[in-house]
């Protein structure tokens, strides 16, 4: 699996809902090569490090493929005119939650990154879209996007290829795992939930979520 990178995006911390509730969800395209560090892209920031950023959430990838679906769902919102509406760092076409698996390793330019978990939506998406029910749409449609941890540092730029180099957990797609852990599918697939314990690259917060659901 190889796809061209449409855009690399970074953002800085800015006031969001209120001066004391900042966010860096507003990402903008970056020209030229960007350094990929263990904690993410050079020049990219996160406001609340308790729930954003860190090694398992170093880079956020959201498929531009979904933008047409969102336009049909919520209308031709201004944020959907270009990549970055969902706070993503990487925008591509041809990769979705149905084709990307937890534990996949991808070459991003010269960096190597591993898929760690799906993106669990929060209130900031609803607020960013002016109060529209984006969170609910993400959960119901499983159009979550996903995060990478950085295995090898390097550089990446728009136009570079993103190429699959290893898939140790065939079948454990981001969509399937998101469905089990976030969207309630564990209620009718207890066997799948138990089997997910073998997917070692799953990020620690989602491992804890898995343990809670297994009870």
TrEMBL record:
It comes from the Bacteria. Residues 28-165 form the MOSC domain. This is MOSC domain-containing protein. Pfam families: MOSC.
């Amino acid at each position: 699996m190889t796809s061209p990178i449409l855009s690399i995006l970074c953002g800085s911390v800015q006031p969001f809902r209120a001066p004391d509730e900042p966010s860096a969800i507003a990402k903008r395209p970056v020209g030229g090569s960007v350094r990929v560090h263990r904690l993410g892209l050079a020049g990219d920031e996160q406001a609340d490090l308790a729930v954003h950023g860190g090694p398992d959430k170093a880079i956020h990838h959201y498929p531009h493929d979904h933008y047409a679906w969102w336009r049909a769902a919520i209308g031709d919102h201004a944020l959907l005119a270009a990549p970055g509406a969902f706070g993503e760092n990487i925008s591509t076409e041809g990769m979705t939650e149905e084709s990307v698996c937890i534990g996949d390793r991808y070459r991003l330019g010269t960096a190597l990154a591993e898929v760690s978990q799906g993106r669990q939506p929060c209130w900031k998406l609803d607020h960013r879209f002016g109060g529209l029910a984006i969170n609910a749409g993400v959960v119901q449609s499983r159009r979550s996007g996903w995060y990478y941890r950085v295995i090898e540092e390097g550089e990446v730029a728009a136009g570079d290829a993103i190429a699959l180099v290893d898939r140790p957990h065939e079948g454990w797609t981001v969509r399937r795992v998101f469905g089990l852990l976030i969207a309630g599918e564990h209620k009718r697939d207890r066997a799948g939930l138990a089997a997910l314990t073998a997917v070692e690259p799953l990020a620690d917060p989602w491992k804890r979520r898995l343990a809670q659901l297994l009870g």
